Amino acid sequence: MPVRVHAVGMRSGTDAAANRAAAVAAVEDAVGSGAGPGTALVVLPEYAAAFDPRGVTPELAEPLDGPFVGALRAATAGSGALVVAGTTLPGSRPDRAVNAVVVVRDGDVVAAYRKVHLYDAFGHRESDRLEPGPADAQPVVVRVGGLTVGVMTCYDLRFPEVARRLVDAGADVLVVPAAWADGEHKADHWTTLLRARAIESTAYVVGAAQQGRGVTGASCVVDPLGVVLAAAGGRGADDDASPGTAAVASLDPDVVTAVRERNPSLANRRYRVVPGAPVASPAGPDGPGRTRC
């Protein structure tokens, strides 16, 4: 049975109550759009609960039993909808938080993913404020309709191994909540990487993006051949799409099956992703890179 997905753009700020209201409105709009019980997938951006483009701090964190997740649970109760949303959890120390994605269905929290790859690139350093999730944690995959949804977030998109682990765990849809930082070439990187992960994984890819200042925006849904099925928002601070604007598309498990029959690249692989295996850092001016774990 096809699944109707809403990849929702948001302009989350530091006002937690306003962010909750916007998230609930987006979920209620998706659930009430005629998708039908058990067929709605709603993806909200990274940091949907609270966002500061200068850097999310531990002060914006709240636990899984806090008001943001509680609001999502209430909004999904009895709906059959699956909601994937970015939040920030308290860390192991008062000066650290955890970038996380929560998965809620029918009023229950069914999974939580803690971001493995912190965004220490392009002049940003999430590791100054956040702690990473465990690299050897089990991939987060959840069934909805006839599809299996795999969860990653934002900077994870630059690491094809993340997508491959999720596909190896059964995913045929990859969801990517993001607050994709703006800058030269960054908007192009976002859409190109979403399409690349779809093509190499022969899977649907759903990117839900923060909009406005400091980010690129541009939520979109990509099919297993890399074709963009729907898009909404974009252009960073000049984004004129209303908050809550969604890229909406139908995800069909039969399409995944057909594409994987025509292009059996997953079955033809001769390598597998091994979490925890040594990783060689890129070679620098002093010679070959070092091997690290």
Automatic annotation (TrEMBL):
Record-linked Pfam families: CN_hydrolase
Provide this UniProt record's keywords sorted from A to Z. Hydrolase
Q: Which domain of life is it from?
A: Bacteria
UniProt cross-references to InterPro entries, sorted A to Z: C-N_Hydrolase, C-N_Hydrolase_sf, UPF0012_CS
State the Gene Ontology terms under molecular function. hydrolase activity
SUPFAM superfamilies from the UniProt entry: Carbon-nitrogen hydrolase (SSF56317)
Location of the CN hydrolase domain: 3-253
Q: Which PANTHER family match?
A: DEAMINATED GLUTATHIONE AMIDASE, NITRILASE-RELATED
The family line of this record is:
Belongs to the carbon-nitrogen hydrolase superfamily. NIT1/NIT2 family.
This chain's protein is named: Hydrolase
The taxonomic lineage of its organism, from the top, reads: Bacteria, Bacillati, Actinomycetota, Actinomycetes, Micrococcales
